[in-house]
Structures are given as structure tokens and as C-alpha cells.
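agent> Task received from the user: take the single chain below, predict its 3D structure, and emit C-alpha cells. No templates, no multimer pairing.
agent> Plan: (1) validate residues, (2) run structure prediction, (3) serialize to C-alpha cells, (4) report one or two observations.
agent> Step 1 OK, no nonstandard residues flagged.
tool_call: predict_structure(input=
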Amino acid sequence: MDKITCNEIFEKFNKLKEFEKISKKDLLNIIQPLSKTVSVYDLSIATSVLRESGKYIQMNYREKYLEIYIKYFILRLKDINQDKNVYGCYLNKDELFDSINILKIQMLEEINEHTNDKFPLIYTLIGLYTTYILQEPIHPVGTPFPGNMEVTFENNAFRCPVKKNNENNPKAVCKFCIAEQTDLD
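)
tool_result: status=success, residues=185
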């Protein structure tokens, strides 16, 4: 990663530990400036990374998955940059820092694989923004998974067909995603 290191990124998040209460706006005040360090070129490389990782996805739903995921990645970063909403809600500090720690571990591992891009930073920003500010699942509604299943919104809750299977996956953010496991009965 150029210009800003992983340690510098997480030092910014660690400043939130000094706050008695952390609001959505406090978190956004850290996420937004970091998101502005991501260029169009960085997004292009991130798209390539997603396409490369998508080659292992089953052919029958690969294109839909990549279309949703790539569009979501790019548009979500734009949403972060343009977010002018007033947020007064407070976040659960322990849950937030558990998530930040998961993302830091993942970022340190990913930096070794993606030395020339900001994919790990983009992933971190989108994960925190989506979960804690928007209170939406990491994968958008409609994201397909094997078995003709997808992320849904039903009975006033987000549902994911693969959450339970990935909660202990160190490379997944399922542990802190707000989606609930889809009832597969």
C-alpha cells in the first residue's frame, strides 16, 4: 500500500478507543478521509482482484456474483465519499473493536498477497461502513451462492445462506456481518 501503511490506518481507528461513546459519525469521520485515498486506478486494480478470485466460483453463477460484487464495491466507496448524513446513533464499542481487530489481521495477511493495490483498505472501509453505519450485510441483497441461494431481506431481517459456514473462516467478515443465517430447512 502506498502513502498510508496498515499501522497508520489502524492507529486512526484506535483513536476511537479514547471516546467514551462512539457514534456512527465518529466512525465515518475516520472512514471518509481514508476512502478519499483510493483512486480510480486503485478501484480498477480492486476490480481485477475480484475478477481473479471469481475464477474459482462455479460458472453457473460467477458472472452474476461478480457483477453484483464489483458494482457494489465501486458504488459503496462512492457512497462513503458522498455521505453527508447526520448520524446520532452510538455503536457498541466492544463489537466495533472486535471487528476492527478481525479486519486488521485480514489486512496484514492480504497486504502480502496484494502489494500493489489498496484492495485490503477498500475491503476494510466497506466492511465497517456497511456494517456499522448503514447496518446492512456485507454482501448485498441478491448476492448469489451455491444451491441457487442468495442474500435476502425477509421478515425485517437480512438473511445469508452461508453465514454459519463461514463464521470461523479467518478470511471472512461473516463473524461481524449483521445478516442472520438463512433458515435452510
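agent> Step 4: summary for the user.
The two ends are 44 Å apart (CA to CA).
agent> Done.
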